C-alpha cells in the first residue's frame, strides 16, 4: 500500500466495468494500490491478503452476491470499509446494504467523480450515501420503507435479489441468466420466497413490491 494514499479492492463480475473503475480511480492523486476480483466468494480471502483501505462492491454478481459478501466480510473483518457501487438506486437496496455493514452507497448512474469522492469520504471513517437514494431525500415515504424492512427481513440477501427481479416482471429463466444461477435454483428460491411472503403468484409478489415502494407502479 502506498503511504498516505487509499488502497482499493474492486469487486465486480464484469471485467470492462472493473477496468473503467480502475481508470477512474487511478486518475485521483489520493488513490494508491488497486486490486480487483470478480465475485463475492473471493472477498474475504483477498481482503486478508491485500488489506485494502476501501472495498468497492457491486451487488449483482454470480454466486453469493454483494449483500452476502458484505455480511461475510464484516463478520471476518469488523473494521472493513465497504462502499457499494451498484446499478440499483432503489432505497431498499441502500438500506439492505447498510444493514449488511456497508459504509457507503453510490449508484452507477451517478457522475463519475461521485465514486472518487465517496471513496475518499468513507476511507476517513464517515458514511457516504449518494444524495437522493434514501427516504427523506426521495419520494419514498418513511412508513412504507419501515414496513418494507420488516417484511423483507425474512428474506436472505440472495432471496431478496431474486424477489426484486421476479416482482419487476422477470421470468425465472431471465433471473437465472441475470444472476448466473441455475434455473432450478431460481425456481426453488421462487417457491421459498412465496412461502415466506405468503404470496401465491408472481402478481402477488409485484403487488407486495409496489405497496412497499421497492418498485414503481407500472
TrEMBL record:
It holds the Pfam family GerE. Keywords: DNA-binding, Phosphoprotein. One of its GO terms (molecular function) is DNA binding. The modification 4-aspartylphosphate is found at residue 58. One of its GO terms (biological process) is phosphorelay signal transduction system. Residues 148-213 form the HTH luxR-type domain. Residues 7-123 form the Response regulatory domain. This is DNA binding response regulator, LuxR family protein.
